[in-house]
Design a protein that fits this description.
Layout lengths: L1 H27 L1 H17 L6 H18 L2 H13 L8 H30 L3 H20 L15 H10 L1 H35 L7 H24 L4 H24 L5 H29 L5 H7 L1 H13 L1 H39 L1
Length: about 375
């Protein structure tokens, strides 16, 4: 159907153009990349007003490219600025910063959900998209006036290339492991985003004889769970718990939570609370994940190719999500959640491997 085409266009755009825009962001400036994200997302939002399929598809392409920039340019700017500015050259405070940033993100998401509901009531389905352009404009203006530009620092003084980024990843297993965690966890997260509405709707209909699902309330509870997770990360970061150890525990919990959700979604006899509690636990892990992966990338991914490498690992992520989407009739909701569980389990193994590598490296130094 049309919705499927639009959905696939967005993910395909992210996969295809991600490494290219990542390279451009590293080469020409992360601030410029952030401003480009705001512009592209605004164009994508504006396209929803058009009745033309071509315009809608182009809007999804713009949004897909914007997503690549959103998940790489601002973080690369922050890490690069912290390490170059001298205030935090070793990145020791970045973990706390990421925790606070994503806690704020969860709070903003809760408020945004309420504002989107008001906008939809006032202007219809495109109301939230129209409202988002105002916030994108404000964010772009703030970044434009308050941020200094920074670009990737390469040893040869040349602009970074995609082939060089691939070589950097191949030559450092730690980067490969961090990238694998990124691809696998975020793929599991996007699959979850697509499957929680039908899963909860079916469970509520069984429990309350066809009652309507309060999607807005559920979303707000999810964001509250994310806030709890981000806050937990900040507290453990202050206590000096290594990011590798914390992330290993978080991924294990996420695997158990998603596995519980897959079992609960597959059985009509499972109580509603089992599914809901599994989803809330996973959302708390999402809140822990983003500051965790940001901290790990700041430690292991070199500034010279940071945005390119982050977007390279977006390719297998999007391939997995699209593959599950195309196979959803065969997999069903519980099957899709089971795929997410497997992805999270592999991510856990990757992180435990990284933790083991880092621990072995520390032992001789401590001795």
């Amino acid at each position: 159907g049309l919705v499927s085409k639009l959905f696939l266009t967005g993910f395909a755009s992210t996969a295809l153009f991600g490494p290219l825009v990542g390279r451009a962001s590293d080469a020409y400036g992360r601030k410029k990349g952030t401003l480009a994200f705001a512009l592209l997302y605004a164009l994508g939002a504006a396209s929803t007003k058009s009745p033309l399929l071509t315009v809608l598809l182009m809007g999804r392409v713009f949004s897909g490219i914007g997503t690549s920039l959103l998940f790489s340019a601002p973080e690369s700017w922050l890490v690069g600025e912290a390490q170059k500015g001298g205030d935090d050259p070793d990145g020791s405070y970045l973990g706390e910063t990421f925790g606070l940033a994503y806690a704020g993100d969860a709070i903003v998401a809760i408020i945004a959900g309420q504002l989107a509901s008001i906008a939809a009531s006032a202007k219809g389905p495109t109301g939230p998209f129209e409202l988002s352009t105002a916030f994108l404009a404000i964010g772009g203006i703030l970044a434009g006036f308050l941020w200094k530009e920074n670009v990737a620092e390469t040893t040869k003084g040349e602009k970074p290339s995609i082939s060089e980024a691939v070589d950097v990843v191949k030559n450092d297993p730690k980067i490969m492991l961090v990238g694998a965690v990124q691809s696998l966890f975020e793929a599991a997260m996007y699959i979850f985003v697509l499957q929680w509405p039908p899963a909860i709707s079916a469970a509520i209909a069984r429990a309350y004889s066809g009652a309507a699902t309060p999607y807005g309330t559920v979303f707000s509870c999810f964001m509250a769970s994310c806030l709890l997770g981000s806050t937990c990360f900040s507290q453990f970061a202050k206590l000096g718990v290594p990011a590798e150890t914390f992330t290993s525990a978080m991924l294990t919990l996420a695997t158990v939570a998603m596995g519980g959700a897959a079992v609960a979604a597959s059985s009509a006899s499972m109580p509603l609370w089992a599914l809901i509690s599994s989803f809330f636990a996973f959302e708390a892990c999402v809140g822990m994940y983003f500051p965790s992966i940001g901290t790990l990338r700041s430690k292991y991914v070199p500034d010279s190719h940071r945005s390119v490498i982050m977007n390279l690992f977006g390719i297998p992520l999007n391939v997995l999500v699209v593959s599950v989407f195309l196979s959803i009739k065969r997999l069903g909701v519980s099957g899709a959640l089971s795929v997410s569980t497997c992805a999270l389990g592999i991510a856990s193994v990757c992180m435990l491997t990284l933790r083991s590598m880092v621990s072995k490296k520390r032992e001789p130094t401590e001795a």
